[in-house]
Amino acid sequence: MTTVLHYVFAPGLLQSEEVLHAFLVGILVAVISGVVGVFVVLRGQSFVGHVLTDIGAAGASGSFLVGVNAWYGFISFGILAGAGVEWLGDRARNRDVATGIILSFAMGLGSLFLYFDTRFTSNASAPMMVLFGSMFVLNPGVIPIVTFTGLAALVVLLLIYRPLLVCSVNPEIAKTRGIPVRLVGILFMILLAIAIEDGSLVVGSLLSTALIIGPPATAIRLTSRIGLASVLSAGIGVVATGLGILLAYDSYLWPPVHRGWPVSFFIAVLVLVFYLLSRLWPERRYAQGAGSARREEVA
Amino acid sequence: MGQFLQMVFPLDLITLPFMFHALLSGTVVAILSGLVGFFVILRGSSFVAHVLPKAGFAGAAGAVLLDINPLVGLVVFALGGALSIGMLGKRGRHDVVTALTLVVALGTGALFLTLNEHYATGAYALLFGQLVGVSLSQVLDTVVLGLVCVLILGVLYRPLLFASIMRDSAEARGISSRKLEMAFLIVVGLATAVTVPVVGALLSFSLMIGPAATARYLTRRPGTSLVCSVAIAILTIWAALVLGYDTSWPIGFFVSSISALLYGVVRVGASLQQRRVAGKTDAHVHPLDGVVGQK
Q: Which label site among A251, B57, B197, B266 has the fewest CB atoms less than 10 Å from its CB?
């Protein structure tokens, strides 16, 4: 028994500072992404959610050039792009295209920045860092900024919870009740940008997408109550992240090369497994009127 | 003046074999992207068009790890991604499934890249493209696979157009929108596999979205829009190649900024025109605004 335990929880796991940091930050990001993500899935904004990670990555590549902390690159590009998508995609029909164009432009800019990075600075590994991130080589200096902005985003989200929910489920009803739908949309986009960019900075843009879409989509299939779904989604995110880090740490002993498999791989696969399991759950019938059609469509 | 022209268009542009290959394969890729992109925009599938190239990139990384032709990995992952999006998604709505497909594909790609230490440069080439490093045999591959895609699209053209604009009427006439969606996703996957080795995973998306989105604002007839989309794609890649040659900056940057610029100009023009005629007619109802659009 102890040998099995030793095998799973490799000795020294919790003594290593990198791993502790990874656990801490991973859990934080998973909770914030889980709660914000419920609204992303509810509003059918998965594409925008993912796009913000790629655009933040372009900003990060630019920040290497200027020589500032990557966080500023992530957050400035993310918020600009989020606002741009809201502004250009005024009608639902335009949204998909507007998002695509902004993404394409940002990726082009990103490739130019990366070209300059590898050419004029010593950051030859910048592209891979930005794309895949790595939890185990976290710069401890960014943890306070990430924690603070992430928690602030969470607080604002709780403050606008009711109106946001009404807007997300049924914009028409929201309008008749006098809620400024457009403003709420832009505010949510900024919160989303903060959540995503914090996530991208610490766990990489790939995992950030995984955590903002996977656990919420799973939770929404399991319950129709949004408050409960938020908690559930944060929980699923934390479990996936914790298990992923654990497996990645263990994988240093695995074949074919003893170099450790990437955390991103484990978390991505775990998130997918959870989602697929939730699809086995019988489809929910929604009792309350307006939101039902929308919600069924989304999940 | 002549001197300036010679600076922008040096004679080497067409005399250098690699530039000739680049122009040739770039044109083929542009035609294909313009055609497929028209439907991508019409059906609101930009996300899929963004995800499949990245999935293909991961597949190519896997193929290199197993020491087989990267094109095989590219095709397998792009088509596999298309199939899983089609099968797991529900009627017209599959953004969650698309995102999850992307995440798993990229996660697997990260694993492949970690397990294989010699691959980094090849990975960059597949991400950002190697348009000026295309060999003649690659040009031939591109042409043949591209023709297959165009043929499939030709067969699908009418039902796909009908189902994209009026899904319910199409279903009433016995066109299965689900099967059609599947066929369309497979075409996008195949087109991805053709374009990624030439122009890279990032650029292949720009070329599919930008020109087609611009063309939609230029004309309301589907056929004309299709032709415009192809023409803009070709002009974009030619201009990007010339500028890339002059500056030696990445071609992807030029392609995406030219497309974004064209889209911006056309969109501003359209909104100005709309404001002018808004009083007279109900100008903002676009005939291509269909069922799929009204999400």
A: B266
